[in-house]
Structure formats: structure tokens, C-alpha cells
Amino acid sequence: KMATLNIIRNKIVSRIFAVTKRQTPYVETFKFAA
């Protein structure tokens, strides 16, 4: 369980960093990640 939680946490953190770096809406990064 801890491994999956860490993966999810890393995904969320990287997504937030991507948004702050690119200064783009969350939707764009969500499309890019998916």
C-alpha cells in the first residue's frame, strides 16, 4: 500500500511543479499526463 501511495503522491507533486513551471492551467497538464 505504501508503494502505491508514494507513486500517487509523486504524480501529484510533479503535476503541481509542472503547472507552476509552465504557468499553464491544470487541465493542460492533466491532458499531457493522460
What features would you describe in this structure?
This protein is mostly helical. The protein has one domain (2-33). The protein has two helices and no strands. The chain has helices at 2-22, 26-33.
Kindly list the characteristics that best describe this protein:
34 residues, mainly alpha, 0% strand, elongated
The fraction of residues in strands falls at under 5%
Sketch the major β-sheet: none
Shape: elongated
Distance between the termini: 23 Å
Please tell me the overall pLDDT. 74
Structural class assignment: mainly alpha
Helical residue percent band: over 70%
Total beta strands? 0
Q: DSSP helix count? A: 2
As a whole number of angstroms, the C-alpha radius of gyration is 11 Å
Q: Which segments are poorly predicted (pLDDT under 50) over 5 or more consecutive residues? A: none
Task: Spell the H/E element sequence.
Answer: HH
Structurally, the number of domains stands at: 1
How are the SSEs placed, and which strands pair?
Elements: H1 2-22, H2 26-33
What is this entry, summarized?
By secondary structure, the chain is an all-alpha fold. The chain is built from two helices and no strands.
